[in-house]
Amino acid sequence: MFSLKSYSLCTFVTCGALITPSAHAKVLDSVETNLAKARTCLEAERYQEAQAYAELTLLPRIVTYSANNDLLGIARASLKTWEDALGGQVSFVECPWYDASLKFDFRPKLSFYGRDVLGLATTRRAVQNWCGDFRTVLTGSIEVSTFLPNGDSASYVVMLSTAVHEVGHFLGLDDTAHRGSLMGPISTQKPTLAPQASELAALTSVRQQAGMVALFAELQGTGLISQ
Ligand SMILES: [Zn+2]
Q: Ligand 1 center to residue 136 CA distance, Å?
């Protein structure tokens, strides 16, 4: 079994902290790694394995989700943002907690290695080999703090901004230092509620590449085309 588990630590800014300039949009290293593995498997004519790795980037057409309390509406709204942004390429469907691939957990306090954070995304992307039958495993948990680190309640908009940001990680985007971008530091004063064009372009590009690998692997695997 090959497994990549990634944590995305999401910090926030409330004042003019010095930010190092960086790219406005970036794909997670784990996603790039899976895409590279998909290409390697395709070249080695391991078509089903190539498809499985490509699907880790593409995600299933339907992803099930659930939330732990009455803030389910925020989870719903954050997913709707991404469904619209991706033009329906991925659909999120609500289901009972124990069946959900993506779980939202809203808590009063959230910390990671002793540091207060507004949100945390944990995603497990894996390909399992069941006696030559390769299967994709993709699960995620999104934690959102209902309070700010200073003790004030987090507003609906800040929690929604955090949730949309964390779903961006689940879909494959990394953090950037670019303030004002969805995947930049989360702002409590000017929350960003949707991906910017550059972020959508980065995600779309990697999804298209994975889609091409999956398509070639499927066609070559079924003998419809040959190299
Ligand atoms: Zn983040």
A: 24
